[in-house]
Amino acid sequence: MQMWSNAIEQKYTANKNILQSNPTLFINQLRNFKYGDEYLGIEVPDGSQWGNSMSTTPGCNAQNYPSETDQHFILANHTAQKINSIYPDKKFQVYAYASHANIPSSSININKNIDVQLVPTVYQLESSTNGLRNKWYNRFNNISEYHFLNLSGWSGETPSFKWSDLKSTLQIANDKKLQGLM
User: Fold this and answer.
1) What average pLDDT does this structure show over 28-47?
2) Nearest to residue 144, comparing CAs of 177, 180, 168, 102?
3) Is pLDDT above 70 for 163?
4) Domain of 100?
């Protein structure tokens, strides 16, 4: 957890320092940095479980490890807390899709500076897009949705999506008062 959070903080700080060292030289990059890094990505790699094997420690085995989703948010919380100790107002972003799309256990409080970007339409292990949405909206307030509106209809070089799907998505975003839509 320390290696992950340190690596993200050090890379962010290095980029920030380079760009701010000569703002006239890096004016466009600095503007993009301020916009693009408003939310710092602290996403754990797809499907990773940093605790997933039997342990030789007495009383600890694979069944004692948190679920993959819980591990994802334990790591995200740790990273957010560490970076917020240096940059107190920094906001963060993680994705919720595939094996870590599920909501974390009730014992895990998601850091208030994290925005969960729910990917409801593809890469899910849930059978219902709206079921997944409702689980998240009932659990946490800082939700955005990240859409691959064309991916499920991808056919070679002719991506497409249904107009009704887009309208429905926008209506849900409005109804749920999403923080954003990507």
Assistant:
1) 73
2) 180
3) yes
4) 2-176
